[in-house]
Amino acid sequence: MANWNPWHGCKKYSEGCQNCYVYTMDARHERDASEIKKNADFNLPIRKNRQKEYKIPSSETIYTCFTSDFLLPEADEWREEAWAMIRNRSDCGFVFITKRIDRLAEVLPADWEDGYNNVAIGCTVENQARADYRLPIFLDLPIKKRFICVSPILEEVDLSAYLCDKIDKVAVGGESGINARICKYDWVLKIREQCESSGVKFWFQQTGYRFVKDGKLYIIERKLQHSQARKANINILHGEKPF
Predict the structure, then answer these.
(1) Alpha-carbon distance 136 to 138, whole Å?
(2) For residue 142, how many other CB atoms are within 10 A of its CB?
(3) pLDDT tens across 155-213, in order?
(4) Cis peptide before 45, with omega less than 30 degrees from 0?
(5) How many CA atoms lie within 13 A of 91 on its CB side?
(6) Alpha-carbon distances of 167 from 26, 38, 229, 237, rounded to whole Å
(7) For an engineered disulfide with 26, which of 17, 33, 77, 88 has Cβ 3.0 to 4.6 Å away?
(8) Residue 76 CA to its chain's centroid (Å)
(9) Using CA atoms, how far apart are residues 154 and 171, in angstroms rounded to an integer?
């Protein structure tokens, strides 16, 4: 697994952005997360070592742009080169998630056709309104590997109308940080039921900081949120890794 952040910073865009971890992280270092900057390791996927081998080895999964949004308008001038590196490293898988799925069609590379085999795209939705707007667009786009990311989940969300053989999996997670809004376990279980009924893989990614189960509020430290979600033992991954 490798992380590649070709640019850093983002603009708050919808309800899920309220307590964005990038803003929290940058505030600790007295940086402005709304300032979009091209990173020094922009060309990380194609960098080589002294032996002229790629620093990121073949078959790695490269998590892309997790301190920004790959479809951010402010990054339009850099994205074509980023697509070229992704195409060049067809031996690796690239994963990115976006709240701006409605921009994808206008910024795809010329040779995209029905999608690159090595790119998995996640569409983030945080509530029913965002799901009903973004997911019909998502399903109509030419993408070979796609998943839905309900994170941070802010209310009960019904994905039933959008779960089909085009969707590989659904990931669900609560919000982190001391200002986090609650994540109700009942919401998580209902999405799991929808996935099970539709034959779509399901991953409970993290509990979030304020987690409500059986009417009781639990405050869960950041370092425990993923492990507590795993302990629920509700994933439907058929023995596969989440990504």
Answers:
(1) 5
(2) 11
(3) 999 999 999 999 999 999 999 999 999 999 999 999 999 999 999 999 999 999 999 99
(4) no
(5) 7
(6) 33, 31, 22, 13
(7) 33
(8) 19
(9) 14
| Token duo for residue 156 | 């009960």
Q: Within 10 Å of residue 146's Cβ, how many Cβ atoms?
A: 19
Read out DSSP for 23-85? Answer: HHHHHHTT--TTS-EE-TTTTGGG-B-TTS-BSS-TT-EEEE-TTS-TT-GGGHHHHHHHHHH
Q: What is the pLDDT of residues 87-114, one digit of tens each?
A: 999 999 999 999 999 999 999 999 999 9
Locate 12 and state its tokens: 């708050």
Structure token pair of residue 236: 């439907």
Strands laid side by side in the 183-184 sheet: 183-184, 210-213, 216-219
Q: Contact, 154 vs 14, CB < 8 A?
A: no
> What is the predicted pLDDT for the residue at 29?
87
Q: Read off the amino acid at residue 174.
A: G
Cα–Cα–Cα angle for 223, 220, 214, nearest 5°? Answer: 140
Q: Tell me the two tokens of residue 150.
A: 């309900």
Q: Indicate the helix (H) or strand (E) that contains 121.
A: strand 119-125
Rounded Cα–Cα distance for residues 137 and 123 (Å): 10
Two tokens, residue 172: 């669900």
How confident is the model over 12-29, as pLDDT tens digits?
999 999 999 899 989 988
| Local structure of 240: helix, strand or coil | coil
